[in-house]
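ugh ok fine here u go
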Amino acid sequence: MLAKPVYEKLPTLYLTIGTATILLSDGTTPKLLAILVFMLGAHIFNLRSQNRRSDNPKRRKSGLWPDALYNLLPYGYLLAAIFVFRHASSNTLLLVAGALGCYSLFRLAQRSHYRKHQLPRAIRVI
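structure:
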């Protein structure tokens, strides 16, 4: 088993590795693998987020998007911002990448604030 501090940081590490690979590599294969690692990190974040929700399931609003797609949407915005930043050839595109990145981080912070996550309680063995 992994230590708790290491276990909690793994999705962040996956997102960081994916981002660094996209920004630093020139080939198509490394970028495709980086997208895969990035999206797996996002998926793990979403699984933990859903598991740690403390709000009443009856009070949750249902939206137009399927839950899986809705949960990955801010990460998709962030991934798009990284690609626009990587391939930007003008200042306008850099501004678009910055705005898209800020919006995705805002949505992730808003989601974290509204969900009031709590770590699951440990199971006591008698």
